[in-house]
């Protein structure tokens, strides 16, 4: 199916890539299209969840944001686990060096994760394989 364009149609969104200033080779700007669409509502929920996790970890570890231990609480990994019990065990394993009670954090995290969708790379239009 051919796309129909007319002078009245709005231009397609574009992304411009630039080389950082001060590099030896000057490369002309490349033009690219944003072709991947994500569910913005789900992305916003993820961002809010990540911000909440950071604030909770700051409270649990009594530290500033840049001092929070490098913990990787992967929401997609939690969603892959079959039950809340296994999710709680996984989060508690990540918090093994936290000496404050963290049961409330784990319960609240599991409540926030419940109902979220796993983020996956959308398939290309022509790709029909599941």
TrEMBL record:
One of its GO terms (molecular function) is protein serine/threonine phosphatase inhibitor activity. GO terms for cellular component: cytoplasm. Residues 1-30 are annotated as: Disordered. InterPro entries: CPI-17, CPI-17_sf. Residues 1-12 have a biased composition (Polar residues). SUPFAM superfamilies: Myosin phosphatase inhibitor 17kDa protein, CPI-17 (SSF81790). Keywords: Acetylation, Phosphoprotein, Protein phosphatase inhibitor. GO terms for biological process: innate immune response. It holds the Pfam family PP1_inhibitor. Belongs to the PP1 inhibitor family. PANTHER family: PROTEIN PHOSPHATASE 1 INHIBITOR POTENTIATED BY PROTEIN KINASE C, PROTEIN PHOSPHATASE 1 REGULATORY SUBUNIT 14B. This is Protein phosphatase 1, regulatory (inhibitor) subunit 14Ba.
């Amino acid at each position: 199916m051919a796309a129909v364009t007319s002078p009245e149609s709005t231009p397609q969104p574009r992304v411009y890539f630039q080389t950082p200033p001060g590099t030896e080779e000057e490369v002309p700007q490349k033009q690219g299209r944003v072709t991947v669409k994500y569910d913005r509502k789900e992305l916003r929920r993820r961002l809010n969840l990540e911000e909440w996790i950071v604030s909770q970890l700051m409270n649990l570890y009594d530290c500033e944001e840049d001092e929070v231990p490098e913990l990787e609480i992967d929401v997609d990994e939690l969603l892959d686990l079959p039950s809340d019990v296994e999710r709680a065990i996984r989060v508690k394993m990540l918090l093994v060096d936290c000496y404050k009670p963290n049961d409330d954090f784990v319960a609240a995290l599991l409540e926030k994760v419940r109902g979220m969708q796993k983020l996956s790379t959308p398939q290309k239009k022509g790709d029909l394989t599941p």
